[in-house]
TrEMBL record:
This is diphthine methyl ester synthase. The keyword Coiled coil does not apply. PANTHER family: DIPHTHINE METHYL ESTER SYNTHASE (PTHR10882:SF0), DIPHTHINE SYNTHASE (PTHR10882). Pfam families: TP_methylase. Belongs to the diphthine synthase family. It comes from Laccaria bicolor (strain S238N-H82 / ATCC MYA-4686). S-adenosyl-L-methionine binds at L9, D84, G87, S112, I113, L163, V222, H252. Residues 1-239 form the Tetrapyrrole methylase domain.
Length: 292
C-alpha cells in the first residue's frame, strides 16, 4: 500500500492516529520537503514516530517517483506531506503514477491552510479561488494571479493568497553550468507580497486592489494552536507599513477581503486589526457592511 499522509500545520503531534498507524507499518517513510515546511525539525518527527525519515526533495518527488513507489505493491510505503495531501498538485500527480502502476493507494487527510484560514474570522463559505504569488525578478513578473483575484472581487469573495517559498533552488548561473549548488531557502514575506500586489495593480490599472480601500489579513503559522501564530488585519497600505516582526515567522499567507463581508466577520477580525477604527471605517464605507 502506498500511503500519502497529511501532517497538519504545526508539529509532530498533529498527525492523526490513522496516519501514525500507517507510518509504523511502513518499511520506508519519505518526508516531502519543498511545497511547505513544518514548524519543527526532522529529528523531532523521527523521535515521535519512531521511524527514520527519508527526505524527498523536488527532484525525487517530481522526477524520481519510481524510487518512492518501489515495491509499494508488496509492502507499505508512506509519503508525509505538510498540511493535507491534496494541498499541492504534486501530490495528486504521484497518486496518479501509483495507480498507473496498479499500486493500491490510501490518503490520510489532515488540516491545511485551506481550512485553517478560518482562524482569521472570515467564513470559509465566502472564499473564492485560491491563488499563488511567486517571487518577482527583474525580468519575470507573472500576473495571472491578478485575473483570479479580479474574478473573486467581482463576486464579492475572499481570496486566499499563498506566498512563494524557494527551497533547494539553483541560481541561473549554477543551473546553466550544471552545478548542484543551491541557494539558501527563501520565504515570501507579507511586505513583499503586498508590494508585488500593488505593483501589479499599478501595471494593470484596473482598480481591483486599492492600497487604502482594500482590506486584507496576514496569517503566519496558523493551526495547532501554535504560540507562534500571528494574525494581522488592515488595509494593504497598513500591512505594507507595519513592522515586519509583527507578522511572525514564515510561512505567511494573505487574504484579500471580498465585498460580501458580513458584520460578524468584521467584528471577529477586528481583534487583529492594526487600526480598529480604520478597519471598521473601510468595512462600512467601502465594503458597505452594516455595523452597529
Amino acid at each position: 500500500m502506498f500511503y500519502i499522509i497529511g501532517l497538519g500545520l504545526s508539529d509532530e503531534k498533529d498527525i492523526t492516529l490513522r496516519g501514525l498507524e500507517a507510518i509504523k507499518s511502513s518499511t520506508r517513510v519519505y518526508l516531502e520537503a519543498y511545497t511547505s515546511i513544518l514548524m519543527i525539525n526532522q529529528r523531532r518527527l523521527e523521535d515521535f514516530y519512531q521511524k527514520q525519515l527519508i527526505l524527498a526533495d523536488r527532484d525525487m518527488v517530481e522526477t524520481q517517483s519510481d524510487e518512492i513507489l518501489k515495491d509499494a505493491d508488496k509492502e507499505d510505503v508512506s509519503l508525509l506531506v505538510v498540511g493535507d495531501p491534496f494541498g499541492a498538485t504534486t501530490h495528486t500527480d504521484i497518486i496518479l503514477r501509483a495507480r498507473a502502476l496498479n499500486i493500491p493507494t490510501r490518503v490520510v487527510h489532515n488540516a491545511s491552510i485551506m481550512n485553517a484560514v478560518g482562524a482569521c474570522g472570515l467564513q470559509l463559505y465566502n472564499f473564492g479561488q485560491t491563488v499563488s504569488l511567486v517571487f518577482f525578478t527583474d525580468t519575470w513578473k507573472p500576473d495571472s494571479f491578478y485575473d483570479r483575484i479580479k474574478e473573486n472581487v467581482k463576486l464579492g469573495m475572499h481570496t486566499l493568497v499563498l506566498l512563494d517559498i524557494k527551497v533547494k533552488e539553483q541560481s541561473e548561473e549554477n543551473l546553466a553550468r550544471g552545478r548542484k549548488i543551491y541557494e539558501p531557502p527563501r520565504y515570501m514575506s507579507i511586505h513583499t507580497a503586498v508590494s508585488q500586489l500593488l505593483e501589479t495593480e499599478a501595471s494593470r490599472n484596473e482598480g481591483i486592489l486599492s492600497s487604502t480601500d482594500t482590506l486584507a489579513i496576514a496569517l503566519s503559522r496558523v493551526g495547532g494552536g501554535s504560540e507562534n501564530e500571528r494574525i494581522v488585519a488592515g488595509t494593504l497600505q497598513e500591512l505594507r507599513d507595519h513592522p515586519s516582526a509583527a507578522f511572525g515567522e514564515p510561512l505567511h499567507s494573505l487574504v484579500i477581503v471580498g465585498k460580501r463581508l458580513h458584520h460578524l466577520e468584521v467584528d471577529y477580525a477586528e481583534t487583529y486589526a492594526i487600526k480598529r477604527d480604520s478597519w471598521r471605517d473601510v468595512a462600512s464605507r467601502v465594503y458597505g457592511c452594516a455595523l452597529d
